[in-house]
Design goal:
Keywords: Methyltransferase, RNA-binding, S-adenosyl-L-methionine, Transferase. Helix content is 42%, strand content 16%. The protein is an alpha/beta fold. A hairpin with a 6-residue loop joins strand 2 and strand 3 (182-187). S-adenosylmethionine binds next to helix 13 and helix 17.
Amino acid sequence: MTPAARIAAAIDVLDQVFAGNPAEKSLINWARRSRFAGSGDRAAVRDHVFDALRNRKSYTTLGGAENGRGAMIGALRANNLDPAQIFNGEGYAPSSLTPEEQAASGNLSDLSELVRLDCPEWLAPMLRNSLGEMFESVCGALKFRAPVFLRVNLRKTSREGALETLLKDGITTKPHALSETALEVVENPRKILNSSAFRDGLVELQDAGSQHIMDQIPVAAGQRVLDYCAGGGGKTLAMAAREKAVFFAHDVDPSRMADLPTRAKRAGVRVKILSSDDASAAAPFDVVLCDVPCSGSGAWRRSPDAKWNLTKDRLEDLIWVQDEILQKAATYVGQDGTLAFATCSLLNEENRDQINKFLENNSDWHLASETKLTPIEGCDGFYLAILKRKISKKTI
Ligand SMILES: C[S@@+](CC[C@H](N)C(=O)[O-])C[C@H]1O[C@@H](n2cnc3c(N)ncnc32)[C@H](O)[C@@H]1O
């Protein structure tokens, strides 16, 4: 496909996404309809679509319309390219610019702050309050693609060993400072899933920030550890690779854990999957992690449509669910145990405010430590609070 045909394809996919369809599904549907497209074409169209979604407001403003054409015209203008060179109707190129599209010209510096930063207006006060003087730089960072990170499975190899094995498969990586298990992929990320290092369980895909917060959770040999919102189990596996403890995984939606047994086998670790009734019966645990559902605002570079789909009502629902989970999970923690609360959110409302509320209602707990990461550190944004029970006077 020519560069112009790839842009025309991205316009089709973006129109699907703007009509309310998920980005991944829209890309898959386009690829099925477009058997002529090779892997390079699919990758290029995907890159256009995700870039346009990260920059949706600024691009569609520069392009003059809230649709796929508007987004791609704006993308070219934001990069100081003349859209008339591509939008000329030749071959498979998009049709020529309309007078309205021509009239909507401009560049990024002409736009208002929130449009330029691609920050949804209703969220700006919350993000400003949560990020303080980092507001502009974090919003700016969210406009760019996230790096690909791998977690080295120290049960099977060293970081250097993984780096060399990956190199044999043509994948270049470099160590990342956020965790002793983190490798940042420099070249050929699309080869990872077929590489021997991945197939043999030497590495897993996991953001460096996620690895960093998992490093902060105190797990000792032989302890009983419950990942209460396990999802795909990425965090269970990170803890299990570090310490020979006894690991349990639970999720309100068991189908989310469907791949966990295969992933655990590949990693050479054991994880017992628990239903909700079994989790309650198996309590108490030494460590309970609640990696709660959240806005995902720290990971908007990877799921940019989530930035525009989040609503006030949805955020309120999430905050309510987070409260419920934290209260429930606390009852599963043994007397001297640890309760870890994690989100991939940048918002105080989902982070420290939740912990303050919990501590107000549960005076026997205290905050032992807190970790906050934003995309400025190169990783996704994360929050982790480690909670411990206060030592009662009777036991001293
Ligand atoms: C942020 S995701 C977890 C991601 C996972 N820890 C990982 O590293 O891949 C949140 C998970 O919480 C689960 N969840 C939602 N409500 C829950 C509840 N009330 N109890 C337990 N899990 C819940 C969701 O099904 C979802 O899989």
